[in-house]
Amino acid sequence: CEPGLGASVMYNLLYNEPTKLMLLAGCSTVCTTVAEAAKMWNLVVLCYGASSPALSDRNRFPTLFRTHPSATVHNPTRIKLMRKFGWSRVAILQEAEEVFISTVEDLESRCMEAGIEIVTRQSFLSDPTDAVRNLRRQDARVIVGLFYVVAARRVLCEVYKQQLYGRSNVWFFIGWYEDDWFVNNLEKEGIDCTAEQMREAAEGHLTTEALMWNQNLQERTISEMTSEQFRVRLNDALRNEGYDIDNKRYPEGYQEAPLAYDAVWSVALGTSLNTMFIKRRVLFDIVSISDSNEIEGQFNFLNEEIKKRTKCDEEHFKDLKKKLSYFKSEYKSCWMKAE
Questions:
Q1: According to the 3-state scheme, what is the secondary structure of 240-254?
Q2: Structural domain of residue 77, as residue ranges?
Q3: Interatomic CA distance for residues 51 and 56, integer angstroms
Q4: I want to staple 254 with a disulfide (CB 3.0 to 4.6 A). Which of 20, 171, 250, 270 is the partner?
Q5: Is 263 among the domain residues?
């Protein structure tokens, strides 16, 4: 998830043959950077691993589509859990990334509506030490943590050092981290807590997660496979690549695999749809535009038609998701799992 590298790769793709009509991107930080720039060329950007609520802004990202639900889908479940257990005062710890900032804004609004007080909101760039210490000073007991998994390990180590865990504390973490995330890569990332200390600090935490797979294991999608058949094929391919998935050692991004698969199908179906559209319309003089001095000519000759069709294509894409995807629900309403 390196937005600078993503932008560099995008420009290399744009200024080298063959001409590109569409870009696929992964996580929120890269997708945000790519989609903001790609609109200048009217390039469609399709993201399969981007959950930032900010990406729903059509004025800012007019050519963006995604198969991943927005991160705000977690917040109603968090609120329900808080109400169920009678937690009326909560704290928030977030990494300073737009995806988490916009998620927190939605969570604060929902907490206000539910009569839940936000006692403190702490953020950090890379080192969470001071932020976790401030939580302890504020006597935070129920804490919602929003950060990527590498930062989560640094946070959890500091939680252990500050003794901000145990029967008096409850932590909400994001559910899409890999299994045993709190003991993975400790030496590689310079985490100065042992695996046993990390397990101790992680004991009893709660997670919320959007279910990415079709829960009807017998239902066939447009690929003529069920979600279970796709899972079996994916796992077999990973075993052949040397991944020890039988011991739950999955590659990074495994949870988004069905969304990436849906994205590829979306590209195929969208390309087919627009090919039929182009064949039906009367083309204007493409040569006169592509021969002009404007660099936009390579990509932009259907500019006005694309603008007219954006809303129509967006609705068509949503309809396709019901036939297409393993993750079937709309962004604002999907199956959630709490653990």
A1: HCCCCHHHCCCCCCH
A2: 72-210
A3: 9
A4: 250
A5: no
Determine the Cα–Cα distance for residues 171 and 163; give it in Å rounded to an integer: 13
Candidates 290, 279, 321, 266; CA nearest to 47 is 266
- Which residues have a Cβ under 8 Å from the Cβ of 167 and sit 6 or more positions away? none
Give the Cα separation of 13 and 17 in Å (integer).
8
Is 184 in contact with 244 (CB distance < 8 Å)? Answer: no
Pairing state between β 22-27 and 142-146: unpaired
Q: Note the pLDDT tens digit of each residue in 107-132.
A: 999 999 999 999 999 999 989 999 99
CB atoms within 10 A of CB 60: 13
C-alpha dist (Å) from residue 174 to 181, 208, 273: 11, 6, 37
In a domain, 152, yes or no: yes
Give how many domains the chain has, as a whole number. 1
- Tens of pLDDT, residue by residue over 179-230, are 889 998 899 999 999 999 999 999 999 998 877 777 777 788 778 888 888 8
As a whole number of angstroms, the longest Cα–Cα distance in the chain is: 72
Q: Which of 173, 93, 91 is nearest to 138 (CA)?
A: 91
Question: What's the pLDDT score for residue 139?
Answer: 92
The answer on pLDDT for 316 being more than 70 is: no
> Is 225 a domain residue?
no
Rg, the chain, Cα only: 22
- The pLDDT value recorded for residue 275 is 59
Structure tokens at 206: 């709660």
Tens-digit pLDDT profile for residues 156-166: 999 999 999 99
